[in-house]
Amino acid sequence: MLAAILVTSGAMVLTSCSNDDDPEETTDEVEAQLQRMTLREKVGQLFYVRPECLDTTIHFNLVSTVDNSADDIKKIKLQAVNATMLGVNEKYPVGGIILYAHNIEDEAQLSAFIQQIRTLKGSPLLCIDEEGGRVARIGNNENFQVEKFESMGAIGATGDAQNAYHCGNTIGTYLKKYGFDIDFAPVADVNTNPENIVIGARAFSDDPEVAAPMVTNYLQGLKDAGVTGCIKHFPGHGDTKADTHFGYAQSLKTWEQMTSCEMITFKAGIQWGTQLIMTAHIATPNVTGSDIPATMSSVILQDKLRGELGYQNIIITDAMEMGAITKQYTNAEAAVGTLQAGADIVLGPQNFVEAFDAVVKAVEDGRLTEQRIDQSVRRVLKLKKQIGRKL
């Protein structure tokens, strides 16, 4: 079945996402870089943060919304690197920066901001949520003249996966032009619950066999434009009712039920060669036997995603500032816990400095080994090499 869904109606053959022409050379270069890095430099590579997290003079109270941009952060409108950020960054290198709508004014400002971010310690990759539809930081900005898309659901309804390729390639082309490396898209969730308030038309379909080729063609479109995609939200946010931006959400499906639905799209993405998979903060009690969020669960990340599905690339969390995490865990518990569970990148901690310090301390006191940190850093450095950014 997967072989069939990996080809579009137009017979477009999808290729692996890897841009690596010489795996042995990449491995040698990554290992050499790893040996030169201090523990703090390694830990920094495992954090992708909002630019606001580097400005410790900013005090904001996150009340997460579906686009993860609380009103008070929008009012701050941080759109340039300042002296405080540079000072914090000297001690706290960072592997990636994610920009939101309020960080972006127009082409001139965005270009200048990205040039400044490129100078930060840690050589951060530039990331954005640009799915198309209602989650499009640039597409929904009137100062940018780019093609807009109604929704992924509308694309899925056409039944033609080449439309998903066009969407991914169009978005990837303008993201590449502006300087982004990673797009946290496409959504690989299957929208099976009509009461779902957070996914909805962000998903391509309520049918996994329709969604799967849409997901892989969207990824291919991004790749052909020179941008790395990320499928989300594992193990599937489409069957939930609640919104993890605000608090607890769960799927009551068994693993067998997920295997016949949600895993069809994720397996397709893995077979295609996706470089990143983003976790969901949903609980899956009939899979894990507990209410722990998938992001914090070794059963989901290690046993299922890595073990059963054979995924070997980067696992990145959904934003750790979201209510499903912050209402149950401190910054320290969340950052350390998700790395212990098997994640490689901690995205958007509520307090970057606290989370960073907690991971360093966890290594120093033995709750995390440096070898465990190295496993994730290797994956991150390999991606940077493939993207063409300095290690």
Please provide a written account of the structure.
This protein is an alpha/beta fold. Helix content is 43%, strand content 8%. Strand 4 (130-132) and strand 5 form a beta hairpin. The radius of gyration is 19 Å and the shape is globular.
Q: What's the overall average pLDDT, rounded?
A: 90
Q: What is the H/E string?
A: HHHEHHEHEEEHHEHEEHHEHHEHHEHH
Q: How large is the count of helical segments?
A: 17
Question: In one word, what is the shape?
Answer: globular
Oligomer: single chain
**How many E strands?**
11
How do the strands of the widest beta sheet line up side by side? 7-6-3-2-1-11
Helix content: 40-55%
Low-pLDDT residue spans: 1-20, 62-69
**Termini separation (Å)?**
39 Å
**Proportion of residues in extended strands:** 5-15%
Report the major sheet: 6 strands, parallel
Which value, in Å, is the CA radius of gyration? 19 Å
Specify the structural class: alpha/beta
In short:
The protein is of the alpha/beta class and 391 residues long.
Name a few traits of the molecule.
17 helices, disordered N terminus, alpha/beta, 3-stranded parallel beta sheet, 6-stranded parallel beta sheet, 8% strand, 391 residues, 11 strands
